[in-house]
Please model this.
Amino acid sequence: MNRKRKTKDSRTCAQRKTEREMIAKPYKSFMDQFDVPEGMQNTQNDIVQRVLSSYHSKASLTKNQNDTEMLGEVFQRILVRQPDENELKVLQQYYTDATETFKENKENAEKLLTQGNFENSDTDPIKTAALMLTAQVIYNLDETITKE
Model:
């Protein structure tokens, strides 16, 4: 028997799985660069992180900064320090990869931005979604989770 179980937000399990895979595609290769505590790798789907990531991405994009400045600002908002050169380079690569992934399928970017109660904005959905995922990655760093 094949039943579709509905969740509180009326998405089926299959839809949620597809969304998780869409989010995790560029995420997995990026997180290999950092020391994420065991068992903490799956926090990227937390709704609070998604809302905060959406806020950070939209706030940074509305300032019309270049990519390096946007990433540095989001990093500083989350970790309250500037990223070092290596961290910024890795974040730029992740952001670029996420942007390219969403350029191939703009619908996935728009789906990501419609999850939750995010406000619509005039920002580019591809850049917003890519920066949102990059912010979620920063939230999943060991330094952010454990505040060591």
Notes: The helical segments are 13-31, 47-61, 67-79, 85-104, 106-114, 125-139, 142-146. The mean pLDDT is 76.
